[in-house]
Amino acid sequence: DAMVIQNPRYQVTQFGKPVTLSCSQTLNHNVMYWYQQKSSQAPKLLFHYYDKDFNNEADTPDNFQSRRPNTSFCFLDIRSPGLGDAAMYLCATRGTAYEQYFGPGTRLTVT
Amino acid sequence: AQSVTQPDIHITVSEGASLELRCNYSYGATPYLFWYVQSPGQGLQLLLKYFSGDTLVQGIKGFEAEFKRSQSSFNLRKPSVHWSDAAEYFCAVGANDYKLSFGAGTTVTVRA
Fold first, then answer.
1. Of A27, A82, B43, B70, whose CB is crowded by the most CB atoms within 10 A?
2. Site from A5, A21, A47, A98 to mutate, B interface, most B CB atoms within 10 angstroms
3. How many CB pairs under 8 A join A and B?
C-alpha cells in the first residue's frame, strides 16, 4: 500500500548529540510536513515543503532543521537536542483535498 | 486565521453506546474539515473529510460527521462504539496555505 514511512520508530539520543529522523512516502505528494507532538497535545507544525520550497514556522527553534533531497524523502535534523525536545515527531504528506496523511511517528527520548 | 475548538477534553462511553464528539471551527470561507484518530504511540489516521457537497459525510470504521455551516460545527458520530474506538480524536480545519489547524483533541475511553 502507498504510505508514509518513518524510521526509526523509537530513537534515544543523548543531551546535545545530533540526531536525524527520516521520512519517506510512496504517495508522490509534493507537500510534506514535520510535526512535533507532546503528550496529550495536538501536533505542532515545525515546517513544510512544497516541492523543494522550504517553509519554516515562525516559532520553530533554530535547533531544528530539515532536508528534502527528493520527492520521496524528508529528514528532520535536531542539532543539539535538549530534554524539552523529547516528543513524538510526525511526518505527513498532503493529498489533493488538503487532507494530510501521517506516518506512524518517531518517539524521541533524550537522556 | 482559522481555528478549531473541541469542547470535550475527555469522554467516557459504554461499549455499544453511541458516541458524538463536538467540533467548532472559525474560518471566513468554506472550510476543509477533517477528523483524525490517534491510538497510543501511533500516527494520526484520517477518518473522514469534508470540502463540499453533501453535508453528511461517511468515513472509515463506521464514523460519520455532519457539517453545519449555521453553527460552524463538524460533529463526529458513531452509532455503536467498540472497545477498539478508545483513542484520541482530533478535528482539523484546512485553508489555502497548506496547513491544518488542529483542535486540542478529545480522549475517548470505552468501558465494558
1. B43
2. A98
3. 57
